[in-house]
Amino acid sequence: MQAGARLGFILLLTPLLLWLTLLIIIPHIDMLLLSLRERVGVGQYATSPANYLTFFGEPLYLRTFMRTAVMSVLATVITLLIAFPVSFYIAKIARGRVQSSLFLLCLVPFWVSELVRTFGWMILLRETGLISTLLQYLGLASGPVEMLYNDAAMMVGLVYTSMLFMVVPLVTTLESLDDAVIEAGYDLGGSGFSVLREIIIPHATPGIVSGSIVVFMLSLGNYLTPTMLGGKDSLWFTELIYSQFIVRFNWELGAAFGFMLLILSSVIVWGMLRLTGQTLEKTMG
Amino acid sequence: MTPDLECSALTKRFDQSLAVDDVSFSVPPGSFFSILGPSGCGKTTIMRMIAGFLPPTSGDIRIKGKSVLDVPPNKRPVNMVFQHLALFPMMNIADNIGYGLRRKGLPKPEITRKVGEVLDRIGLPDIANRKVDELSGGQKQRVAIARCMVLEPDVLLLDEPLGALDLKLREHMKIELKALQAAFDTTFVYITHDQSEALVMSDQIAVMNAGRFEQIGTAQELYYRPDTAFVAGFVGDSNRWSGKVETVAGGTLALRTDGGLLMRANAHDRSLATGDRAEIFVRPEAIRLARSDADLAHFDNRLNGQVTSLLFNGAASRILVQSAEGGPEIEVTLPQSGEFSDVGRGDAVHIGWSGEHSNCFGLTGAM
User: Fold this and answer.
1) Residue A172: which of A76, A219, A106 has the closest Cα?
2) Cα–Cα distance between B51 and B45 in angstroms, integer?
3) Do B237-362 and B5-231 have the same topology in CATH?
4) Cβ burial B61-87 (10 Å sphere, 16+ → b, else e)
5) Closest chain A residue to B97 measured between Cα atoms?
């Protein structure tokens, strides 16, 4: 009996361990070793921090890195600001069929691939696109308006892509808040703002944090949206990694970039958890 | 003296259904007023209108003489203890109680002082820094009341706050609530579907059914002199027969039940005429049990029959008696003196009661 349970435990654990070692631990160790390697001659390598020094020495790399971080945080904040009222409406105000159909509406865009969704935005925003044509038709613009290939277009794409991942945890936590608690807040003299600040937001904090972490990581690691909507003028750090690996064939520098991105996301997520007094177990559990 | 709370012709209509239908009542200062009714009768709707969460379709609500219809819930001088208490789980007890005071913008030291005072009042001086989920059911109850009372409202509304507690604690909290009401000397408006909660605690009770008040009165009035058949059936237990009035003479009438029994009852000034269909209610404890008919000579209603079952329930034990003259079984409370402790199934007994203790109501509509 004891031995049987032990065997079962090992069998259940095996896929997890395989997944962790083969797909996460081994590639990362390999990447780390790769990033600490410098090509000194044809087929000759030496261990050195040269790749990291290149990263810190080149303003384009460092600026793109910081820009990516700031823009990702911004995308997370905008997503939160839009998703919170939407989630509150779905969880607390809408009832019955309206509630489920609204939730479904948030999900519908995810039935098509991210590529198609982004093309949808291109159709709307490009020079010969819908919005440009409409503006000309209304006489608000004299010529074609290009709305693609800038930070704003990219931000729109990022927020749109991440919306569902913010709405789901928020709706879940807000639904668990008893209506009577909100009413009690009003009954005891609270205004709409103070009820939001003292009751609703503290209750929703785990949902806000877990949604923000997911959205932040998705934005930081997004490749498609910045490439298609941001174009050359708004560079994203993942594009640099891609070009090192695929265009320049400089795997050593690409691996170093990859590690910098990993460190960045870890530091920001850790900072976010510390700031809100949450733990990873509490928000993700 | 102006009443603390006064509702006049209060009506609430949801789409097609009438939830509250022309209800008027007033609650004098410092009294304990209960609204008692089965679930779905509209009592919660009344409470939510008083608290300000629902606007009435028509009618007026006055608190201390002033209409509050245009006052939003956060500005009304009433506070509410919710059914599941709705304590704020994200705050500790002191912050929960201090919430309303902070909203009023009181200085910090004063909030601390007032919170301390009210915690002393409810007999829980040491729990200020505890979390909500560390308290027992009864403690949460008291904190929920303290959270409202610290704001010194004109009226405290309580929406079935004892519903979630287990039986023993509920019995205990009934007494405690009454004591807290006396200690704070505030008007309590309490809604419940549990008649014993209402009867034990209230100065005045309104019995509500299908959106209307059936009767407003003291516990004794409701119990002994119900105005309507609904009140007689809802408050306390009764034996209930329907039949036809045979004779009316002075204050007494005789009624022939559908089972064929002839019953004499005091009309208690209710207008009933010969030939009317009527219902008669007799409480199990109003019926006297005896071994021989002679012991019951002074009662105007006497029957003999057989015990069909014994419903033992401590002090509230009853027997079911099947009358020899037919009709449904009659519930009779066993006297507590012990003289009938040996009564058992199949025993022959005599029962009798005074017409004074029965209540008769005319049935409206053809039956």
Assistant:
1) A106
2) 10
3) no
4) bbbeeeebeeeebbebebbbbbbebbb
5) A188
CA separation for the pair A212, A158 (Å, rounded): 13
Give the max Cα distance, chain A.
82
Which listed CATH number (3.30.70.1450, 3.40.50.300, 3.10.20.80, 3.90.550.10) goes with B5-231?
3.40.50.300
Model ipTM value: 0.78
Distance from the Cα of B163 to chain A's closest Cα (Å) equals 15
Report the length, in residues, of chain A. Answer: 285
CB neighbours of residue A92 within 10 Å? 16
State the DSSP code for A91: I
In chain B, which residue's Cα lies nearest the Cα of A181?
A: B86
Q: State pLDDT tens for residues B46-101.
A: 999 999 999 999 999 999 888 999 898 888 999 999 988 889 988 899 999 999 99
Spans of all domains in chain B: 5-231, 237-362
Instruction: Give CA–CA dist B54/A244, Å, rounded.
Output: 64
| Domain B237-362, CATH class in plain words | mainly beta
| Helix, strand, or coil (residue A94) | coil
Domain with residue A275: its CATH number is 1.10.3720.10
CB-CB under 8 Å, A191 with B88:
no
pLDDT for B261-318, tens place per residue? 888 888 777 777 788 888 889 998 888 888 888 888 888 888 888 899 888 888 888 8
Judged by CB atoms closer than 8 Å, whether chains meet at A188 and B75 is answered as: no
Q: Are B101 and B114 in contact (CB under 8 A)?
A: yes
Q: Could you tell me how far CA A144 lies from the centroid of its own chain?
A: 32
Of A186, A187, A199, the CB nearest to B88: A199
pTM for the full model? Answer: 0.80
Domain count, chain A: 1
Q: Which domain holds residue A94?
A: 28-38+45-284
Amino acid at B72: P
- The partner residue sitting opposite A187, judged by closest CB among B79, B87, B91, is B79
- The 3-state DSSP class for residue A279 equals coil
